[in-house]
Amino acid sequence: MSKTLNGHSRSLHHLRVTLPGTTCYPLLMRNPIIVALDVPTAEQAIQLANALRGAVGALKIGSELFTAAGPSIVKEIKATGAGVFLDLKYHDIPNTVAKAVASATRMGVDMLTIHTCGGSEMMKAAEESAQKTALQAGVPAPLVLGVTVLTSMDQHTLSETGVGEDIGKQVERLATLAGQSGLRGLVCSPLEIAMLRQILPPEIQLVTPGVRGAGQDLGDQKRVLSPKEAMTAGANWLVIGRPIYQAANPRQAAEEILKSIGG
Predict the structure, then answer these.
(1) How many CB atoms lie within 10 A of CB 260?
(2) Buried b / exposed e across 111-139, counting CB within 10 Å, b at 16+?
(3) What are phi and psi of 197, to 5 degrees?
(4) Which of 11, 61, 90, 138 could in theory staple to 114 by disulfide, Cβ–Cβ 3.0 to 4.6 A?
(5) How far apart are CA 105 and CA 142, in angstroms?
(6) What range does the domain containing 8 cover?
(7) Which CATH number characterizes residue 148's domain?
(8) Would you please indicate which residues are annotated as catalytic (active-site) residues?
(9) Consecutive sets of 10 residues in the chain, 263 residues long: mean pLDDT of each?
(10) In total, how many domains does the chain have?
């Protein structure tokens, strides 16, 4: 399966994959690039989405844009033909997270995020809510992605939160718990991809931010690889923000990155 998922087909159809005990859900197979719409207004986001139309696999709506533009931005971005990754990193009591996931599912998002440090009960509630709501609404269930350790964190910042063990060990612990809780995908640093591929079932989707080309500004990312290195390590999806949306020509930047990984 992983070979197929890494095929980077440019076709515009959705591949529906059914895992044991789940309803089917869509995976956008145009290419593995997800562009972060880290812009402050709906107008800027829609302009960028139109500029990237057909050139990337999906677009990510994060906290800044969702807070500024509201839920309607999901519908507006989907209207451009793009897949939507809603990256709000839900972390709350299980019932609250389940209700938030249900709302996101009804919006038609393709992917969404929760924090794995919310624990197994919260993660199970999120996945069950996605599946149940999708079945009731007659839509594909979104891919619920568990966030392990943020790519902006290093050993020092992790220790500040009271976690004394090595980042890799913490990622391994949380990833294993996520898999046991029924999640079908994870968000992780590119530096942990190869390790996770050794311990997780091959059908688990790995989404990685923290991707930068040679000589590019790292910004607040601390654990990074190049796009090609991340894909070679076993990533299914690359979340790329500033190197594309701050480029003079975002579409050209996305196309060059896709070419660099053999797409």
Answers:
(1) 14
(2) bbbbbbbbbeebbbbbbbbbbbbbeeeeb
(3) -65, -25
(4) 90
(5) 6
(6) 2-260
(7) 3.20.20.70
(8) 89
(9) 33 32 42 95 97 95 97 96 96 98 97 97 98 96 94 83 85 95 94 94 92 52 74 94 94 93 78
(10) 1
